[in-house]
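During the reporting period the student researcher (J.K.) took over the structure-prediction task from the postdoctoral fellow and processed the backlog of single-chain submissions. One of the processed entries is reproduced below for the supervisory committee.
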Amino acid sequence: MLKKFSDIGPTLGVTSGDVSNWRSRVELRTAFTPTVAGSAQRYSFANALELALIGAFIRVGVPLQVAVAMADGHVQSAVAGRKVCEWAATAAGNYASGRMADDIHKIDWDALQAISPNDVPAFFVVRVGEIVRRVHGLFAPEKVEA
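J.K. obtained the following structure tokens:
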């Protein structure tokens, strides 16, 4: 099922300008359906989830190129029907330090701080599981009243 941006954009937390900007600057990992001149781009579940996650990572300060790479694993898991962790946390400035957990209290914040640049206790946290649920909701089959 493919959706128009006007139907999904507000839930994704990104604008059509964000999407155009990102697509012109980096190669996103999900395949977009080709468009015909004069028709609007349509988005799959995978496209929508990738855009929502990239937007969330960018909002907490992750550079675009890194945000694309970080979103990719979560998108692949969700598309394959595998469980996606609820929380993703990383030390600010050390994007390779990521930790994922279903319970935010089980993230070892001291270990993250120890590998952050200059031992600064600054982190970014994204609730990946909630983003996945919201995007799933956009693509859930509509219930027809009898």
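The committee noted the following: The chain has a mean pLDDT of 92.
J.K. will present the remaining backlog at the next meeting.
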